Amino acid sequence: MSVTWQALLAADVGPVRQAAPIWDKLAATLEDQADAMAASSRKLPEVWPTGPASESAAKHLNGMRGELDNAYVPMSTIAQALAEWADGISELKGQAQELVADAQRVGITVAADGTVSMNPGSANASTAQSMNSVVHVRDGILQRAAELDGRLAGVLAQNTATAAGTPAAFVDPKSIPARGTDPAAVKRWWDSLTPEQQRYLLMNNFEQIGWLDGVPAASRDIANRLALDHAQETAQASLDQTKSREELIRSMREQGRIWELYPDASDPVTAAEAELMRLADQRSELEGKLRGLDAINSRLEDPNQPRAYLLGVSTEGDGKAIVSVGNPDLADNVLTYVPGTGSELSKVGGDIERTNRMALDANAADRSATTAAVFWLGYDAPNSIPQAGQSGFAEDGGKDLGGFQTGLRVTHEGETPSRNTVLGHSYGSTVIGHGAMSSSINADALVFVGSPGVDVNHANELTGVHPSQVYATRAEHDMIARIPDWDIIHGNDPTRDDFGANVFASNPGDPDDEAATHSKYWDEGNVSRDSIAFVATGQTEKLT
């Protein structure tokens, strides 16, 4: 499928970009209706217990539910494809407009139909060479546009038919590889399944599939959107139950009937106070997790930003989440961001915004390539500064990070591997250090931002990458500088000369608020943002 230069310059991606979340919403609505129908089917025997008509009604309801279920995955796949097309064509249109302007500055005209010619009086050897370059870039832009068009057409053709009712195929859940299995083996298993079998697993085993490194990002996104919906419903139900119990205890206490709730307690009033305190903690935790889940959902549904992919979500413990801005399996560059101490599900909103900024910066730094940025909270982060002095969190997190990075390698599409950069902020850099002590980190470059140390004393001890590809920065007034650099708690400061990293600049920050400075690396105007983008896109010669 070919795309003309004129059509690309005139392309209006707005309607397609807006259509993507509509397809997402339609898929979610049908899934909700399927769940409601399942609940109704379970109640049918209570009012219509036996007889041929009862059996026929039950069969009909189950069939309708199956049709609704069958539509979820293809509709979600269509939503992904629409968003990817809109994001890609928008970027290519920008590149085409830049090419026209750049060419004009060196005496070359790129006409509306794509024809390239020298301006009168500008013909010389240099202009001729530039003209060849312009033609090459033009053809590359058109080729990528055609590939995007062909990909979207293929997805629409395949999935509109599937959405019409092609049934899924049962897969024994015991055949699903365990979490932590070699991602290459997972990818082989996933590829061995038919589309109908994959669809069955996404619908019925989404919590397992969503966390499997080696399953493609697009499929993980579909599974985890279902997991997110389930997590929100479960957390909200628990919160409602908690609030109801609190209200009951207070009401019974006001009525002087508190003993009815605690008939075996020697002191019912004290028992009530103890339970209210426990319920208050439970309510606060649930509200925090719902706040995090809502922040993820808001980013997923935002039609005004590049599509985000949910690669992992869990409410266990402090909660975990993996969110990618852009599809890492299709990107030329992938930047994975690992947050530090205090990171948990309830606070993901700020980290997702940082990830948005890094994706935006990197794509602006190199318009000829695409960069996906991933927020990776796939580990249990320490909750306090004293806990951050321990290495156990980083040891466990480093293993999981290595599996995730290997998964990015095996699921990436195309003959050319992506440039993969892993960036850690604060204790997140310590996690990366443990992952990079072996080749499992599967990265081309490492970046340490505001690091307390990475548990090695020199870049050459990070055997997962070449020492020349280790980068670090720390603001002058970052509170992390207060940590004694005695090579004891997490090794040398990575910005020290004897560590061997490439050190780049950051704004100095506020000497009167060192704690705030520790989180300012992604603020508007901070020079560190440009350097992070240059590392992510392989333009390290531009570092300052």
Question: Would you write up a description of this structure?
Answer:
This protein has 544 residues and is an alpha/beta fold. The chain is 54% helix and 9% strand. It is built from 15 helices and ten strands. It has helices spanning 5-10, 14-47, 52-105, 125-163, 183-192, 195-204, 206-209, 217-254, 268-300, 348-365, 385-388, 392-411, 427-435, 514-517, 527-536, and strands spanning 108-110, 116-118, 308-314, 320-325, 333-338, 371-377, 419-425, 445-449, 470-473, 502-503. The strands form two sheets. An eight-stranded mixed beta sheet has the order 3-4-6-5-7-8-9-10. The radius of gyration is 27 Å and the shape is globular. The two termini are 43 Å apart.
Topology diagram in text:
Elements: H1 5-10, H2 14-47, H3 52-105, E1 108-110, E2 116-118, H4 125-163, H5 183-192, H6 195-204, H7 206-209, H8 217-254, H9 268-300, E3 308-314, E4 320-325, E5 333-338, H10 348-365, E6 371-377, H11 385-388, H12 392-411, E7 419-425, H13 427-435, E8 445-449, E9 470-473, E10 502-503, H14 514-517, H15 527-536
Parallel strand pairs: 5-6, 5-7, 7-8, 8-9, 9-10
Antiparallel strand pairs: 1-2, 3-4, 4-6
